[in-house]
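User: Redoxin. Structure?
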Amino acid sequence: MAIKHWAAGVAVAAFAAVGAYVYLDTGRAEAPASTFVLLDGTSKSTADLKGKVTLVNFWATSCTTCVAEMPEIVATYNKYNAKGFETLAVAMSYDPPSYVVNFAETRKLPFKVAIDNTGAVAKAWGDVRLTPSTFIVNKRGEIVKTYVGAPNFPELHQLIEKLLAET
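Assistant: Predicted structure:
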């Protein structure tokens, strides 16, 4: 019986450690090699993001928090784009492409929008299932911050400014 409790305790500790690493950002992980298929039919790869600070946002048109945060994401993009900041909105595989296109066009999203038709991109980025999930990638292609749910935008802006200042 004691061994069962010990094993359970080790499993809980390991899970907590992984969770702390992912959600508290105690380390920097290379952004996964991915190909993003954009609404215009072109594609971008993770390698194309290097040299820019990039916000990668997994979202869905059916996600009320995603829809509510989109004006802030647009404002953030508009504020920092000229300084080397990029935004990539990745629609989840279950989101109907026509809904994504309609959303992007009616809201005049100024940044690149991709559709993850197969779910492979979400899987590569840590098996993203909760939306919105937002990753901040530095100029070297490392994930430096992850938000599940809407980011604290003033804090996000401070982080972007710090990352843009890095060489």
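The domain at 30-165 is CATH 3.40.30.10 (Glutaredoxin). The beta strands are 29-30, 35-37, 43-45, 53-59, 85-91, 112-115, 133-137, 142-148.
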